[in-house]
Amino acid sequence: MAPDKRPPTTLSDVARRAGVSPMTVSNVINGKGGVRPDTRRRVLEAIEATGYRVNAVARALAGGQSRVITVFSPQLNRPYAAEVIQGAALAAERLNYDLIVMMLSEQGRSDVSVVTRLAAGALLIQPSSEGRWRRADLPAHVVSVDGPGERPLTVDNYGGARQAVGHLLGLGHTRIGFISGLESGDRQPFPHPPGPHDRDDADERLRGYLDSMAAAGLEVPAGYVQHGDYSKPSGERAAARLLGLPQPPSAIFVSGDAMALGAMHVAQDLGVRVPGDLSVVGFDDLPIAAASRPGLTTVRQPLQRIGEVAVQMLVALAEGRDPGLPPPFPTELVERESTAPPRPAR
Amino acid sequence: MAPDKRPPTTLSDVARRAGVSPMTVSNVINGKGGVRPDTRRRVLEAIEATGYRVNAVARALAGGQSRVITVFSPQLNRPYAAEVIQGAALAAERLNYDLIVMMLSEQGRSDVSVVTRLAAGALLIQPSSEGRWRRADLPAHVVSVDGPGERPLTVDNYGGARQAVGHLLGLGHTRIGFISGLESGDRQPFPHPPGPHDRDDADERLRGYLDSMAAAGLEVPAGYVQHGDYSKPSGERAAARLLGLPQPPSAIFVSGDAMALGAMHVAQDLGVRVPGDLSVVGFDDLPIAAASRPGLTTVRQPLQRIGEVAVQMLVALAEGRDPGLPPPFPTELVERESTAPPRPAR
DNA sequence: TTGAAAGCGCTACCAG
DNA sequence: CTGGTAGCGCTTTCAA
């Protein structure tokens, strides 16, 4: 049962019907000036009547202007990527571009090049986790998020960490633990041009934590810095280690919302009340941070905004302008219910 | 700063280098038999040496075999779609197809046709919520999920509802409320061929609930059936109405995990303990169901599995086989901590 | 203001 | 087994 066997209408069909040459139809479609109003109207009518749609594939082959932006992302069922993509989609729609997302397989078997010639630009999400990108397989313009590359969009991780710890300090906490993301070295470097802004989010947050503690004249006891891998279970394990310390912290800054949720949950399982006995601050402000009970106080990354800016840059680049690289995006502390002043010292 | 100005290698370049005709290169690439081993080897070497990659766009234009499957989905930051897509991606990778996701804008302004000619088939997620699809703008083969269409993949919603209510009944509950999804009529019909399996998830679940209650010889008191829109806030409102009843239920079956989470949270806010005072069962088994506290007992839809099957069907169709339409996918009750026997009657 | 010619990179078809 | 020819549907460049 082959569906719809009629060959689709082509530009020439439209031209014939309108009694003009294919070129004129092309000019009308692409808004190129120099078409007499009534000719234009006739063409438009023919397009309407035939239900014609440009064949984007043919257009791309012929070297026409592309109005497609591609996002390359590993797993879409990660809230982080989903938020960035949502923002990108919003911007694309506003700019009248179409957005295509290509999921990268873990094994890197995906043939990235299928969409390369179709897209005006590409947004790379977490490019470092995938192995070898060949620059030649990517569209002409590339912006990356949460990973290295030429034109990487970054967030003020250091500042965010200081906001988090500052908040805890302000509440009166002095025993503040930290659960970091990947340890340095866990991330693979971006093979090709190592952009000027390469750096490690995890390291910056750690530095922010350390500097805040030092600035407050506070010691960081042994075992107060634990590592996870941004997953909830890893957050549970790290928090369990922290809570098992002889002098457990009264507050934990966790470098990721999923891990923070895990931390809250182990605490609750251990009979440690959040925020009564333990304050928890996360990082990211994913949807789950607001949906959890207690609501998670967290450092907000403007994920959707980042996606928007990425697309705006890509469109500018595609249209011949140079948008430059914006400074790291500022973070913002979102106070919810997972933080409170420490128990009065006994 | 135009990156990489070298024109990419073409098939002819490879042919020249290998000293064969373009056709032979094409045959090697596409695994068409009839190429002498050493010729084949020479071609492979030339490909390797030049770093050649097929131009998928040109191939598609020339009518070649596509190894791309497209998913059309509204908002990617919805866990439901994300899970289905994840499953689809797994299957695609296994079958050596590439997966492309196109986000549909709310306004329906997206130009679906950009990928149409590139893809061997398309998976439509929640097609009913988007307005007018023109069959001609879609790839040759289409499978839809969570919405009508030719070849719709469905889940046993009725059976799932009966599992949920049966579980509650088995625990000893008799006052069981229901929070439904969209009311009938909220969904827009699929314009074109209204497939043989059109039906409304919400209605089926309601029917399952009603039949279970009736089969147990139980009344459904006035106000025990509330409606939401699958969002967490709507679940909160519906649960608040249920809990505000003179004879509030001791258990609620909620037709969606996000709404169920909302129900648990208002209950907690009202001082109603879950599961002590109120049992809650959700539907879907999204990641949040397992990540919440208490863990949400829910009816699991095999979302990833559905995505996999959709891709398998599409690939079969693309390769000329007819996979037929599988029966509704069975659901499974996942017991977690949000359900318990009712308080002993006073 | 409009049109004719050429070709993007590839594959189908049919020769040799 | 291999190669030539034609053409997918569009846009470019240039001429009318």
TrEMBL record, chains A, B:
Domain of life assignment: Bacteria
UniProt entry tagged with the keyword Transcription regulation: yes
Region (Disordered): 182-201, 320-346
Name used for this protein in its record: Catabolite control protein A
Pfam families associated with the record: LacI, Peripla_BP_3
Transmembrane segments: none
GO molecular function: DNA-binding transcription factor activity; transcription cis-regulatory region binding
UniProt keyword DNA-binding present: yes
Domain HTH lacI-type stretches: 9-63
CDD domains: HTH_LacI, PBP1_LacI_sugar_binding-like
Keywords for this protein: DNA-binding, Transcription, Transcription regulation
